[in-house]
Amino acid sequence: MKYLAVMILIAVSMGACAQSTATTEENNENTIQSEPVKPESDTGDSKTECKICDFDFDSYKGELKKKEIEGLLLALNDEYMATAIYAGVNEKFDNPRPFVNIVEAEKRHTKRLVEIFNKYELPVPENEWLGKAPGYESVLNACKAGIDAEIENKKLYDRIFDSTEKEDILTVYKALQRASEQNHKPAFERCVNRGGNGMGRGRGGRRGRN
To answer: How far apart are CA 33 and CA 12, in angstroms?
Structure first.
């Protein structure tokens, strides 16, 4: 009898332990499932944010493919962002070089992209970056950020070259990337080398004209 009682006690203890373990695992599973999932696109990096990419693809009846539209939206978003940032620097610091020239170049870049949008009957979104672009405490800091922005601009065009085979679109992409790499970035580098000072004001010179 004593042996039987011990065996019953052990069996009851093991059952209670198993139930406790199952309850713990169930609670852990519920806890894991209730944790919010962070979207992959939520990087917190303004350079990768597209404020104009909410496009109704179902309503578009033109000849462009989805990836071609996405490429154009990313390109226009980048030019919009640059225009807004550089215009803000001009307003805050009274049109310092190279920003006074480069902002006009960015507007011309935007115009070339808008011509592509119109050609393929794509609705042209408004510039959602206006009034929302990052600001800087000095021209030097703005020039440093400008270098980074132009580097990102080149990377962006490297990515979207593969989005289309249309020569007219590729011609614009290549021209805008070339202007960024050969004109804008060197202008910002000269600004940094001069400490953000001594650049003068106004619209003289040839840099930033593309």
So the answer is: 32
**The pair of three-digit structure tokens given for residue 191, joined into one six-digit string:** 């600004």
| pTM of the complete model | 0.73
Neighbours of 60 (CB within 10 A): 15
Q: What's the token pair of residue 190?
A: 């000269």
Average pLDDT, the chain: 80
| Number of residues assigned to the chain | 210
Residue identified by tokens 């679109």 is: 169
**124: number of Cβ within 10 Å:** 14
Alpha-carbon distances, residue 77 vs 30, 74, 96, 172, 174 (angstroms): 41, 5, 24, 15, 16
* Residue found under tokens 């202008």: 187
pLDDT value of residue 56: 94
Q: At what angle do helices 66-93 and 99-119 cross, to 10 degrees?
A: 150
Half-sphere exposure of residue 205: CA atoms within 13 angstroms, side-chain side: 17
Residue 111 — pLDDT band, cuts 50, 70, 90? very high
Domains of the chain: 65-193 (1.20.1260.10)
Are 83 and 107 within 8 A, CB to CB? yes
